[in-house]
Amino acid sequence: MSLSAHTRRQFLYASAAFTGLSAVSASAAFSQKPAASVSALPLSDVRLLPSPFKTALDVNETYLLTLDPDRFLHNFRKGAGLKPKAEAYGGWEQDTIAGHSLGHYLSAISLMYAQTGNPVLKQRAGYVIDELALIQGAQGDGYVAGFLRKRKDGTVVDGKEIFPEIMAGDIRSAGFDLNGCWVPFYNWHKLYSGLFDAQSLCGYDKAIPVAVGLSIYIDKVFAALNDQQVQTVLDCEHGGINDSFAELYQRTQDPRWLKLSQRLYHHRVMDPMVAREDKLANIHSNTNIPKVLGVARLYDITGEADYRTAADFFWERVTGHHSYVIGGNGDREYFFAADTISKHITEATCEHCATYNMMKLTRDLYRWSPDARYFDYFERAHFNHILAQQNPKTGMFSYMTPLFTGAARGFSDPVDNWTCCHGSGMESHAKHAESIYWQKADTLLVNLYIPSTAKWAAKGAAVRLDTGYPFDGEARLSLTSLRRPSRFKVALRVPGWAKTATLTLNGKRIDATRDGGYLVIDRVWQAGDRIALSLPLDLRVEPTGDNPGVVAILRGPLVLAADLGSVEDDYKATDPALVGNDLLAGFTPVAAEKAHYKTVGIGRPSQLQFVPFYSQWERRSAVYFKAFNEADWKIEETAFLAEQERQRDLAARSVDVMHLGEMQAERDHNLESEISWPGTYRGRNGRDARSGGFMSFTMKVKPGPLVMQASYWGDDKCDFDILIDGQTLTTVSHKSPKPGEFFDEQYPVPEALTQGKTSVTVKLVPHEGRSTAMVFGVLLFTAAPAGTPA
User: Fold this and answer.
1) Cα–chain center distance at 347
2) Do 151 and 180 form a contact (C-beta atoms < 8 A)?
3) Same domain, 621 and 719
4) Rounded to 5 degrees, what are φ and ψ at 315?
5) Residue 6 phi, psi dihedral angles, 5° rounding
6) Distance between terminal CA atoms of the chain?
7) Residue 441 is part of which domain span?
8) Which of 442, 583, 647, 677 is the most buried (most CB within 10 A)?
9) Same domain assignment for residues 627 and 694
10) Residue range 230-277, pLDDT digits in tens
């Protein structure tokens, strides 16, 4: 088919897709829909001045300009029968989730264009939209996607193959996998977001016919399903696909898309939120946050109270009961039981995508009810997680931001290990100015103290914010120009941690009205007026909610960390502790202007240097500390140090760990199973296999004697064999060996089973009529030297 034929088909298809939009009845609009109380100043009207955020923005812009759109489009063109113009990127772009990064990239370059005005970025967005329209025309039915499908025989084909099966009722939905395709609707949600950003921020209205054409195809898929089948499809991670259709409704006013958005409501997850029940434990964090973003958008449209209840309740629970001190959440990507932070300080905390989406939800809730407490959370996450996620030396992004003592942050590669957090990282660091300034009819609200300039078009005003915050406590806002003297309000956020706050206007101290966490000045303003806000940057101790003996140290909005050395050096020391009857008295400044402190007398086993956590890109850190008073330390010291040494030794000898019952870990370790189910018990994920079934997975090995450790619940009964590459390692048989507790069992691995290998297949096979019971994880580690306790 010639290029002109492709283009003609696309044009005819897009025209048909828009037929009837002008005839949408007034009933499609909701007369009771809520009006947002406030809105952010447009990203294009705000420019950053030098600061760590400006550095992150500049580094990201440089990186985005190195990327080749045709590499993202590889599978899109191939699936439509068009010759790819470049090889695909690596990482997840080589897996069945391929194509998701194009949506992130389209959003990132659109955001960066709005933030910088760089015309090259706008041109690239236009190129991507033109390519997608061409590809959609070649498909002929509205379909456009880059994801793939792995058949049962291992053959990898275009992902479009799964949808006739689904429409016929053959739905195989399991967490991350839908009929052999990795999260296709999640993938499409990213594409829709990119299309919408290209329209909003770059002015490419031609993005909407592509979105409408794709929606017609997807609507046809769901139209073939009954409501229960829809819920089965939604059991596979689908991102915020309901948000996509709600947004398309807002842009087209076609009620078809609102109806589809409301149908894609995942009852199993959302109904408890409406009932204000915290059922978050052991569900995948970032699978579910976008669903809440979708109902928030539906509340914007419909005003239905249940939608807002779900969004409000979810935000309150996550930020107040499921989040770490840096604002992130999730242990190995999963929520855990409420208020159990101290039990989940691991090397796999805080997936970036989850915080990226929680910050989006925070903006939604703030729009409805502009209370400063929302930005207390937003600022904490922005400084301590988002800035931590990008290495400014390389421009690369971390997937997790580990809080485990001594853990190193791992960063992506510019080409070869694309993941979801690489994609959301490109977006996060393209929009650091989007939430500084907000407006309502008579008020300019300043929520973040980031050096910047802004235009407030509604008042014909321009402002400049100069500050060294959070390294110093003063922020200076200047009204650099004003169309004419005017009366309005300026509201400056006072962070919840600030014990006091003082204001001056044109050099003279003033008293201002305190309202909703803001200091508000209401007056007739003139060009040249200057406000200065001063905040005290005191150190404070923040204990975990479940254990006052596990604490973090903060200064203003910054989480401080003990610097434990370069990531180039192994960390083998004992985890540090803080000991004293008055911990804060044991800190003294080294360079207060950089938030650098040291301990005097309270560090164990030695004194510590504290620095801002976010800046530890290539350093090892300690964020959470066990804290003791002097009397308790004398009692605990011996046991504490012995346990720390045991854990450290085991971690140092670990070769691989399999977290059974967790979707990502099982995918990474090539899990195969029959008559086997994941589950949770007492806050821990696991998996069992029952009579006639099995579970198998690959694990890394290294030369020398190894030990396998498996974790069980003491009341379970089990009877099964563990095989390594088909040879029996051991038979496991338990009958309530340790009632009422979890326990570990260790099995020496003969060197003959691993010699010359880099990985093996571990298989758990229950005996006839028996079960493995729940296995809560499998660890392979090197055997301890002779005479050393394991």
Assistant:
1) 16
2) yes
3) no
4) -60, -45
5) -55, -50
6) 67
7) 437-534
8) 583
9) no
10) 999 999 999 999 999 999 999 999 999 999 999 999 999 999 999 999
